[in-house]
Write a structure and sequence with these properties.
The chain is an alpha/beta fold. The chain has one domain: Rossmann fold, CATH 3.40.50. It has helices at about 5-25, 80-85, 90-95, 95-100, 120-125, 140-155, 190-200, 230-240, and strands at about 55, 60-65, 70-75, 110-115, 130-135, 160, 175-180, 200-215, 225, 240-245, 255-260. Strands 4, 5, 6, 7, 8, 9, 10 and 11 form an eight-stranded mixed sheet that branches. It has a three-stranded antiparallel sheet with strand order 1-2-3, with no helix packed on it. A hairpin with a 2-residue loop joins strand 2 and strand 3. The termini are far apart. It comes from Luteolibacter arcticus. GO terms for molecular function: methyltransferase activity. One of its GO terms (biological process) is methylation. This is Class I SAM-dependent methyltransferase. Keywords: Methyltransferase, Transferase.
């Protein structure tokens, strides 16, 4: 019996120790799942900035006024209507491809800024049968030609409109889109024109900017009448527009798309 008691004591001590170990051991707790980061915010709308014009000696094709380092080109006047309406224009520039690439609702209102003879205006009118094309120019002679041509073609949804050198002279939020074909580089007041166009476009309205490719020396156009994509982005993004892309369907020109946020 004397031997049994120490054995029982030993067993009890072992049991108590085991119970105490399990009792004191803390349960394993897995670390919490990491909190996922919030979704990235969409790119903020570019803020318009005011850039001073710089003047200097004019080159033969320029006016001696510089914007973002680019000399502004001389305006092509109404005597050049024949060049705008030349029969080989389709072969050289493929305007039908540009028009096909421009997406518009049938009831959209689009302004053809620097419409000239209306070469694009009349062709664009077919895309907006329930809307209209505002054919804007600063030369009354161009608008007179437009009116006569509209009557000849019996097109009623092309509206000639006289703008100013620094203002499109259109109501706020009245446009779904704007088209500028080889004209923007000649604007003597590009900063003011872009600001007025920003006001005239509805939120989400787009600019379709066609310019001869300044990066390509094979394009047979005088340098000041061409623009690089980088230069166009610098100027339009500086005016508060968002670059959407360059469609690139044309042999000589950029077809760049910008949006009014």
């Amino acid at each position: 019996m004397a031997r049994v008691i120490p054995l029982l004591v030993l067993i009890c001590v072992a049991a108590i120790s085991a119970w105490a170990w399990f009792r004191s051991a803390e349960p394993v707790v897995l670390p919490p799942e990491p909190t996922p980061p919030p979704p990235a915010a969409s790119a903020p709308a570019p803020a318009a900035v005011e850039v001073p014009y710089v003047t200097g000696p004019a080159t033969p094709d320029g006016i001696g006024k510089f914007f973002y380092g680019r000399e502004i080109a001389k305006v092509m006047g109404h005597p050049a209507i024949g060049w705008l309406e030349r029969t080989e224009r389709e072969q050289e520039e493929a305007p039908s491809k540009a028009i096909a690439a421009i997406e518009l609702a049938p009831d959209a209102v689009i302004a053809d800024i620097g419409a000239g003879s209306g070469y694009y205006s009349f062709r664009m009118s077919e895309k907006v049968p329930r809307g209209k094309v505002v054919a804007l120019d600063i030369q009354p002679e161009m608008l007179d030609f437009l009116r006569k041509k509209a009557a000849e073609l019996k097109i009623s949804n092309v509206e000639p409109h006289l703008g100013a050198i620094d203002d499109v002279k259109l109501p706020a939020a009245s446009l779904d889109a704007a088209l500028m074909v080889d004209a923007y580089h000649e604007f003597s007041h590009p900063q003011e024109m872009l600001a007025s166009l920003h006001r005239a476009l509805k939120p989400g309205g787009r600019i379709f900017l066609l310019e001869f490719r300044g990066e390509d020396p094979k394009v047979p156009i005088k340098p000041l009448h061409k623009m690089t994509e980088a230069q166009a982005r610098l100027e339009l993004e500086g005016a508060g527009f968002r670059f959407e892309g360059n469609l690139r369907p044309l042999p000589w020109q950029h077809l760049m798309v910008f949006e009014r946020p």
